[in-house]
Amino acid sequence: MAIRFYMEVHVPAAITSALRRRGIDVLTSQEDGTREAADDELLSRAASLNRVLVSQDTDLLRIAHHWQSTGRPFPGVIFAHQQGMSIGQCSADLELISECCREEELANQVLFLPLG
Length: 116
Known about the structure:
The chain has six helices and five strands, in the order βαβααβαβααβ. By secondary structure, the chain is α/β, with parallel strands linked by helices. It has a single domain, classed as Rossmann fold. The radius of gyration is 13 Å and the shape is globular. The mean pLDDT is 95.
């Protein structure tokens, strides 16, 4: 099964649109009504939906690390820094992850973009 993504509010809409054009299952926090939610609530929501959280918010790195260290499970976090990466490169990397990774490979992990 392809990886499904949950985009937090800082991820540009152009990335979401590009992924959807490629047939990738993406849900945004805006669509889900969590636009104003605290970061730990976003990770909880993504986990409850079994979706990998895509973020450009460094606070989520700290929260994911805390969850890892306390053994709290989550489907994964992908972090793409807001600078130094184009929308096209970010979209291509997320497409590759969606198509090539298995859920268990991303579970409880933090991946950093760009991939290579």
